[in-house]
Write a structure and sequence with these properties.
Blueprint lengths: L1 H5 L4 H8 L19 H6 L8 H13 L4 H16 L6 H15 L44 E6 L6 H15 L4 E4 L8 H12 L2 E3 L7 H14 L4 E4 L9 H15 L8 E7 L4 H8 L9 E5 L9 H9 L3 E5 L7 E3 L2 H20 L12
Parallel strand pairs: 1-4, 1-5, 2-3, 2-4, 5-6, 6-7
Antiparallel strand pairs: 7-8
Helix pairs in contact: 4-5, 4-13, 5-6, 6-13, 7-8, 9-10, 11-12
Length: 373
C-alpha cells in the first residue's frame, strides 16, 4: 500500500514494521499480475453498447478502494460521457483518459509539471499505466526563489502530528538537502508543546526559537523570522497551536500571526500546510475545512498513512478540501516522510483497476459485434 501512496517502496520502513511487537509486516506492496498488453487494450473497441463492461468493474474498484461516492461518480460519469460522444473508442483511450482525469482530481500544485497529464502510455502489461511523469521526482520544494527565508506555517487540530511533521521537514531540508533551517515554537497554548518541539530540534540539529507557555504566538514567529533574516536561513518552519473549531480566539491567532509575519516579509507565510490525520476519514476533512475561514492553506501533509489506508481515500481528502497532498508521513522516525508523487500513485492505482478488469474480461469484451455502435 505504501507503493500506492508514495510511488515507491520504503525498505527502511518495511524493516521497522517487520520488527514491531506484533511481528507483522504491514508494508507489503500491492502486486498486480500483468495480463493485458497495449495491443490488446487498443483492440478492445468501446461504444455505447459495451461501455458498461468497462465502467462496472471501474465503479466497483473505486468504491472498494474507499474513493467515496462523489469522487467515484465524477470519475465514472466523465468517462461515460467521453465514450458516448466518441472521444474514447477503445480501452487504451479509456485507460489514458482515466489516468488523466484522476491526476486532475488530485489538484496538482503549481510547481508540478502538469503538462505531463497527457498521461498514460500503456506498454506491455497491466502495470504499463505508468504515466509520463514529467517533474514527478518527489521534491515539491517549499523554498521560494525570492524569499530569505521561505516561511512555512503548519496548522491543524490537536493530535494530528504537526510537531513530528515539523521535525521531519526540518530533518529533510537540513540533513538531506543541506539547507539552513529554523523552527518557531508557535504553539504556546498547549502544555509542554515547546519542550516537545525543542526535543525534536535537538534531535535533528535545528535551532528552535521559543518563549514561555502562554506567550503571544505571533511574537514568537516575528522573533524567529527576524533571526532567520539576520542569519540567512533558507527555511523557517512555524508551529501553531492545535485549533478547535469552537475556539474563535485561537483560530484568529492564525490571522494575526500571518499579518505580523508580513511586516518583515511581504509574502509570508509562503506556504500554509494543513496537517490531517489519515485515519480519521471524513471527520478529519470536516475539522480541516474550518481553517480556510481564517487562513488559506496551500497544501496537505497527510499523517499516519500506514498500510491500512485505502488508496482511494486520498481522492476523498483532496476533493473534500480542494488542496493538493504535498507530503505523506507514515511513522515516528524523522526520515519517515516523503513528498507525495501523484503520477506514480495514479499509475499504480489505474493498474489496480486493470487487474480487476482483466479478471472479468481476460483480454477481450464479449461479442462486440452484437452491440450497437
Amino acid at each position: 500500500m505504501l507503493k500506492n501512496i508514495f510511488g515507491k517502496s520504503n525498505k527502511t520502513n518495511a524493516k521497522k514494521k517487520h520488527n514491531n511487537e506484533d511481528g507483522g509486516n504491514n508494508n507489503q506492496q500491492t502486486q498486480h499480475t500483468p495480463t493485458l498488453t497495449a495491443t490488446q487494450l487498443k483492440g478492445m473497441t468501446l461504444n455505447k453498447g459495451n461501455i458498461t463492461e468497462a465502467l462496472d468493474p471501474l465503479e466497483e474498484f473505486l468504491i472498494t478502494s474507499d474513493m467515496g461516492l462523489d469522487a467515484t461518480t465524477q470519475a465514472v460519469e466523465q468517462l461515460r460521457a467521453d465514450t458516448l460522444t466518441g472521444n474514447i473508442n477503445n480501452m487504451m483511450h479509456f485507460v489514458e483518459e482515466l489516468n488523466t482525469n484522476l491526476l486532475h482530481m488530485l489538484k496538482l500544485p503549481a510547481n508540478t509539471a502538469t503538462t505531463a497529464t497527457t498521461a498514460t502510455t500503456a506498454t506491455t502489461a497491466t502495470t504499463a499505466t505508468t504515466a509520463s511523469r514529467g517533474n514527478d521526482n518527489g521534491e515539491f520544494s517549499l523554498l521560494q526563489k525570492d524569499a530569505q527565508p521561505s516561511v512555512v506555517m503548519l496548522v491543524g487540530v490537536n493530535g494530528v502530528g504537526k510537531t513530528t511533521s515539523i521535525a521531519k521537514l526540518a530533518h529533510h531540508y537540513k540533513n538531506v538537502l543541506g539547507k539552513k533551517v529554523l523552527i518557531a515554537a508557535g504553539d504556546t497554548y498547549r502544555a509542554a508543546a515547546v519542550d516537545q518541539l525543542q526535543h525534536w530540534g535537538d534531535t535533528v540539529g535545528v535551532e528552535v526559537i521559543s518563549q514561555q507557555q502562554g506567550a503571544d504566538s505571533a511574537a514568537v514567529m516575528y522573533d524567529a523570522l527576524s533571526r532567520g533574516v539576520a542569519t540567512d536561513v533558507d527555511l523557517l518552519l512555524c508551529d501553531t497551536s492545535g485549533r478547535l473549531q469552537g475556539n474563535d480566539n485561537l483560530m484568529r491567532e492564525l490571522e494575526k500571526s500571518a499579518r505580523v509575519l508580513k511586516k518583515l516579509s511581504e509574502n509570508a507565510p509562503h506556504e500554509v500546510l494543513l496537517v490531517i490525520d489519515a485515519t480519521l476519514g471524513s471527520n478529519s476533512i470536516l475539522q480541516a475545512k474550518v481553517f480556510s475561514d481564517y487562513i488559506a492553506p496551500t497544501g496537505i501533509i497527510l499523517t499516519k498513512a500506514d498500510a491500512h489506508l485505502q488508496p482511494g481515500s486520498l481522492f476523498q481528502i483532496v476533493q473534500g478540501l480542494g488542496l493538493p497532498i504535498r507530503f505523506v508521513s507514515y511513522g515516528e522516525g524523522v526520515d519517515q516522510l516523503s513528498a507525495f508523487q501523484p503520477y506514480a500513485f495514479v499509475g499504480d492505482f489505474v493498474s489496480g483497476y486493470l487487474h480487476t478488469f482483466s479478471k472479468t474480461h481476460g483480454g477481450a469484451f464479449g461479442d462486440v459485434s452484437a452491440h450497437s455502435s
